[in-house]
Amino acid sequence: MDVLDSIRQLYPPSERPILDIQNIKGDASTRRYFRVNSRRGSAIACIDPVLLNIAPERYPFLIVHDLFACHEIRVPEVYETSGDTGVLLLEDCGDLMLQDEIPQLNAGQLAERYRQVINLLVRIQSIRPDGKTADSMIPFSLNFDHEKLMFEFDFFIEHALNAYFTGRLGEAAIARLREEFVAIAELLMLPEHFVLNHRDFHSRNIMLFGDEPVVIDFQDARMGLPQYDAVSLLRDSYVQLDVGLLEELKRYHFDQIRQQSLTSMSWQEYLRLFDLMAFQRNIKAVGTFCYQTLGAGNSSFEANIAPTLSYLRDYIEARPELATAGKLLEPIISC
């Protein structure tokens, strides 16, 4: 059965011949998306290999979807699922991403929209296991632990330094850099401050539907520092915010998580960990973009490599802990 037929199977036989199924360009993932127009209206079909032959109660997308929905986090409604074909039929929340809206907003509107999205983020970060959800279950059993952070650093080494930027750093420099990455990962291991993170909370994963933010691509949610998702949003590879607005929104996020008793860290500690986390997160993003460009043959992400690298200098200049890594990375930061 081909992909289109697997989508048609989710509809009554009488509707299948007249379905209009159009491919939608997805982001950097293994999932594929299609818009399906039928007599009942429009829906989004997601083809996810992970769904194949897995029980629904073990499928991360549905687990996190239901968790978010029961905490009134706006997510697309799930209409149908098929584990046999790996297809989900989801609510169509349109095409307008936060990234698309930004050029249409004046300064005041932009600040207000980002405060609204940060409020949504803080609601996600406020979710804790309850009587129905043990902390040994997804997503609370998953963490940005040392292993996960180093996996992302090593992904950057493999796909950015050893592939896309091959020859810019020698073997000795890469080995020394990895030692620095290990040290940075250790600095970010503060489980006493961990909260629930979406894990990819940027402007392409926030849809605007009826002027309401709708969260998508949340299946990799896990525990980590509150700065992780804040970095994804405010040091976004797809949107560069004005420095004044950036600082204002950092403070806004900090104030909100303090008011919700989600952290005991000071403002200065928040800023330090924001920069260290931003360094790690942006390094991870560059690795992904380099992999997509060379490994997956998806050149649409290549334009995001240089803007993301440009963020690194700010963190390196601000934090002594990043000085050595910054010197080693200079051949690609300055290119």
UniProtKB/TrEMBL annotation:
Annotated ranges, domain Aminoglycoside phosphotransferase: 20-253
Gene3D superfamilies listed in its UniProt record: 3.90.1200.10, Phosphorylase Kinase, domain 1
Alphabetical list of InterPro entries matching this protein: Aminoglycoside_PTrfase, Kinase-like_dom_sf
Pfam families: APH
Superkingdom classification of source: Bacteria
UniProt protein name: Aminoglycoside phosphotransferase
Organism: Chlorobaculum parvum
